[in-house]
Structure formats: C-alpha cells, structure tokens
Amino acid sequence: MKTAVPHCASFKAHEDIIERVNEAMPDEELLYDLAELFKVFGDSTRIKILYLLFESEMCVCDIAAMLNLTVSAISHQLRVLKQSSLVRFKRVGKTVFYSLADEHVRSILAQGMEHISE
Fold first, then answer.
1. Nearest by Cα to 81 from 107, 102, 100
2. Of 92, 63, 67, 65, nearest to 78 (Cα)?
3. Cα-Cα-Cα-Cα dihedral sign, residues 105, 81, 70, 58
4. Which of 11, 41, 62, 75 could form a disulfide with 58 if both were Cys (CB 3.0 to 4.6 A apart)?
5. Which residues contact 70 (CB under 8 A, 6 or more apart)?
6. Element (H or E) spanning 48, and its range?
7. pTM for the full model?
8. Cβ of 87: how many Cβ atoms within 10 Å?
9. Strand pairing partners for 89?
C-alpha cells in the first residue's frame, strides 16, 4: 500500500522561498537557450562525435570512418554542433579539422560521463 506524501501543512505558499528563488531565476530567454543546448546533447550520434573530439581533433572523414556513417551525415551533425558553439574548426590546406569549442564542452562531457558512471 502506497503512503501519500504530505504536502505543505498549511496549504499556503511559502512566499519568502518563492521570492528568493524568483529573484535568482534567469530570464525566460536564457532558460530557452539552455533547453535548446541540452537538446543538442540529446542525440546519440552527436554525443559520439563530441566524445571522439574529446579525445582528439579529427576531420570529417576520420569521424565518418570511426562511426561507420557517411561524410554527409557527419557534416550535418557537425553543422548542428557548430551552430550551438560546441565545436570549432580549423583549415589545414584542404582538410578541415574539428575540435571541441572550449573547456566548458569538455567539462560537460566529463561530468556527464562521471554522473552516469556512479
């Protein structure tokens, strides 16, 4: 038999808590942008690409070979990752090498992996 979880005893909102938390809340637009960023992490192919780039900078052909996908499919995913500022690229001759955009992305991946490995 399931026991009901008690709710607020007074059935009255705790105005002090609500006010404090409301003042700390980011603007709606920032929360939307954060949600959009996490959506990008919600695709397993993009996570695989990010994890490869966590280990080394790579060109599209190398990424495609490692993931057994077409260059076109990888290019599409890299475009999404670039638009979200998660990867950057540099051109060396005719070859374009991709890497994680910065230490924030590296940290997000490392912390995510640590969290699921606990």
1. 100
2. 63
3. negative
4. 62
5. 64
6. helix 44-55
7. 0.84
8. 23
9. 98
Question: Tens of pLDDT along 37-78?
Answer: 999 999 999 999 999 999 999 999 999 999 999 999 999 999
| Token pair in block for residue 49 | 């690409």
How many Å apart are CA 12 and CA 35, to the nearest integer?
A: 31
User: How far is Cα 63 from Cα 69, in angstroms, rounded to an integer?
Assistant: 8
**Distance between CA atoms of 104 and 97, rounded to whole angstroms?**
19
Q: Amino acid identity, residue 93?
A: G
**Whole-number Å distance between alpha carbons of 75 and 13:** 50
**Contact in structure between 60 and 78 (CB atoms under 8 Å):** yes
Report the C-alpha gap between 74 and 62 in whole angstroms.
10
Which residues pair with residue 92 across a beta bridge? 95
Look at residue 26 and give its three-state secondary structure.
Answer: coil
The three-point CA angle 98-104-108 to 5° equals 95
